[in-house]
Amino acid sequence: QVQLVESGGGLVQAGGSLRLSCAASGRTFSRYGMGWFRQAPGKEREFVAAISWSGGSTYYADSVKGRFTISRDNAKNTVYLQMNSLKPEDTAVYYCAADVYGSTRYKDVNTYDYWGQGTQVTVSS
Length: 125
What we know:
Blueprint: E1 4-7, E2 10-13, E3 18-24, E4 33-39, E5 46-51, E6 58-60, E7 68-73, E8 78-83, E9 92-99, E10 114-115, E11 119-124
Parallel strand pairs: 2-11
Antiparallel strand pairs: 1-3, 3-8, 4-5, 4-9, 5-6, 7-8, 9-10, 9-11
């Protein structure tokens, strides 16, 4: 079984930055597509960013494009989400997810086979 553990969430002021990490188990991590999603109170879980197994391709929701950067370090079995110029509307629980089989449907929550427990990001005023 694949286990994913997010970390790095917290409270920041608008305009600030935060880097989330997602540590994954399994020797085949390097072949998993990875995604970040977020869920705000009363809202559906939404796509934030995704990265291919090689790290050669990245994808972003329009709402975060130019502000967030997804990356991965396969040697450390870790995927990152660097969040800059944070806005109050970025407040949510952030989840990382692993796509074991690979898919172009990176925006779809059903694409992903494993999920982390989530980490809270709160952006004030």
